[in-house]
Each structure stands twice: as C-alpha cells, then as structure tokens.
Amino acid sequence: EVTNMSKVDCYVLKKEKLLFIIVMVSFTYVISLGFLNRLFGDQILIIALLNLLFLVVLFMSIQLERITNLNKFNNTRGYGRFVIIFSLSCLVLLITYFIPVITAPLLGITILISLSFSPTIGMTCGIYFVMVQALILNYTTTTVIELLFFVVCGALLSLLLQKKHYILNVDIMIFMLSISAEILFQYFASFQGDLQMILSGMILGVVNIVLVTVCFPFITKSDELYYENTLDYLLDIHFPLIQDLRSCSEPLFIHGIQVSKAAGTCANKLHLNVKLAAAGGLYYRLGLFEEKKGNYPGEILGMKNQFPSDLLQLIGEYKGEKQPFSTPESALVDI
To answer: What is the pTM of this model?
Structure first.
C-alpha cells in the first residue's frame, strides 16, 4: 500500500511539473514572437493575457477528458509527450517566422499534437497558434481561414494516422492539401497567380511531411511503452482497483488471481499476448462490481481506470454474449 501511494503521489507531482512547463513554454513563445515583431508595453501585456486565457481553456479541456475518461494518455507519459511535441511546435513556428515564403506548418503541428494527446487538444492548440500568429503578425482574414482549415484537417488526419499502415496515404494527403490550399487561398486574396504560390505550397507540404515523419516513430514507440506499462500496472497487486475488488469480495478476488495465472500460462505456451490474457483473466468479471449491472461486464470501471482498448474489448466479449470473440486471448479467458 505504501508503494502504491508513492506511485500516485509521484504521478501527481510529475503531472503538475509538466503542465508548468507548458505554461513557461507558451509564454516564452508568445513573448519571443512579440519582440521579434517589435511589440512592447501594452501590446505584449495583452498578448500575455490572451495566452493566459488559452492556458485556462487548455487545462479545462484536459480536465474534461480526464473526468469523462476519453483520453487513454491521461498519465505521466502522455503529459510528457505532449510537452515535448508542444515545445517542438513553438520552436518550429519561431523558426518559420524567419522564412516568410511559407505559411506556418499548422497542418503537421496539429497532427502531431492530436496524436500525442487527443484531437480535441490538437485543435485547441492549433487554434491558439492561429490566434497568436494572426494578432502578432497582422494576418489577413484569408490567411486566418487558411490556417484554421489546416488545423481542422490536421485533427481529422490524425485519426487516420492512428492506423499505421495509412502513413503513406496521409503523407500524400498532407502534400496535396498543402499545395492546393496555399494556391487557392493566396489566389483568392489577390486574384493573381504566379509560380511562387506553387513553390510556397510545395515547401509547406515538405515541411509538414518532415515534421510528421520525424516525430511519428517517437509517438508510436511511446504508445507501445505506454501499453506495456499499463498492463504491468493493472496486474500489480497494489493497483487500487484490485484492492477495491478484494475488499468487496475475497472469493472473487482469489478466483480472478487464479484465472489470471492460468490464462497467462496458457497464453505463453500458445505464443499469445501473455499480459493481455493475464489481465483479462483478472478483470473478466469486473462488471459484477458496477452499480448498474446492465453495463456488464465492466466497461465503465475499465474506462475509469484507463484500461487499454483491447482489454476493454476482451472483458466485453466474456461468454460471447455481446459479440463473438475477436482475439485468441478473449477466447482463452472464456475457456
């Protein structure tokens, strides 16, 4: 129990430190961009207050996702990854300030932030970057609409990019969207076309693709580590949910431990996912502890405790009542 409490305290402490870094990075970004554009005094103060307003909205969004259990990355690793991607985005936008030939690569930035945390947070940060760039750099209405278009497209493409085998398709779509949007919006602003529009769109497309291609393996690897660590944590005897189950029914707790060991041993011999099978065996009767038995077998409690999606699916397929078994691990636990 002492070990478990130290984990919780460490998690809260790290999360608060990481969110503080977001505050510092965002203020550094807006103040630096303001000074580069020769804003001083009241102008910098107003930008700083608007930045504070963004932080309030951002933290409200994060809190909402935590309460509604919609975000599987609501953990120290997820926050850390979000801090890295957000900081990188601010750095890239400061660098592109010195390259006026291209628009801010908000398509790639929104994709990365959406993948690192959630599409909602990705769109929130994307709109924030548009607001800051528009106010400080005096963007035209057409340019603002173009950037907002990239933000929306980035959030949508992040959903497609979650399927790893679609990465080439997404890269092609990024390149085509960058070129076509840049040409169309710039032409609409002046009703004059030239080769520079095409060149600007091509450079923007390459920058967006490079951003996504370089950072995507880091995000994917982080997902894999998160999955493994989550299953380890769920199988830890000190995990709070296990202690709650034990306090409710010692016999069911012992039965779950026995099923978990048997499922893990069988999965090992069959070369299946041992940790998934063991966790499924431990929690497959989780629905018995929910207040509303109609939600059996345990989706609500599973979501509240950040169960991976395949574990939620496994316990939802128990006895095959809701749907047929989708994985060998699911069938093994039922046996």
So the answer is: 0.74
